[in-house]
Amino acid sequence: MLATKFRKEFFFHLLCAVGSVLLTSEYALAEENTTSCSLCIDESQPTDPKTRVVLTDATVTCSYLYEIAPNITNATECGNLQSLGTTFCGCGAEPPPPCGLCQDGSELPEPDRVIADGKTCAELEESAMDDFESDCKWWQGLIGPLCGCPGEPPALPDDTCFICPGNRLPKPEKALQLSSGEAVSCIQLQLDANRNGNADCGRFQVLYAEACDCFRDETPTEPRETPSNSAHGLGRKQKMFAGMLVW
Length: 247
Known about the structure:
Layout: H1 2-18, E1 52-54, E2 59-61, H2 62-68, H3 75-88, E3 114-116, E4 119-120, H4 121-130, H5 136-143, E5 175-177, E6 183-185, H6 186-194, H7 201-208, H8 236-245
Antiparallel strand pairs: 1-2, 3-4, 5-6
């Protein structure tokens, strides 16, 4: 395994060092410039999107290379990128089956139900099928239960990012108004916090936990006239949190 890893790293650094390396006809493009570069030659998604590739000045994932590929217009650079896709990212491998929202492979019980951001369960399933296979567990574990998939919700990995620390969202469909004017649901934010890694989990929790009612006390109480909820406007705590949403 170590020898294989060494060979891959050596191959990559060799490409970087030579720069103008002659590519085989498999990678070479007919024209000097192209407007349709993709990480995988057949324009499919990499089967190993989270594999980390060590560049000369950074370490990036294959999913990142997949996203930036359309911006490359030079034929030689595109060929170099595609050789990386084949060597490191699983391009050309047998594609995984499409991701359905129901883990057992059954059809959606409520395909027309509107869940997140005005999208139906059927539309969300289409998005799941277009996503990376490694993110399927988030679609099935977070969105599938809301669409009525049968059985117990799939077990989520230990490193799952919950906007409500340690708990599922009490109101997953609640929409938040961001400072940009965009409206986004709490469940969409939780999905985004986990897709393609959850390195920003703490940031999502700080920004959205209170707005998504994570700490709301459901016990009914009589309203009280206090400095924080009186007619004078938002209290200090609410103002501080409102400011955090402006990002």
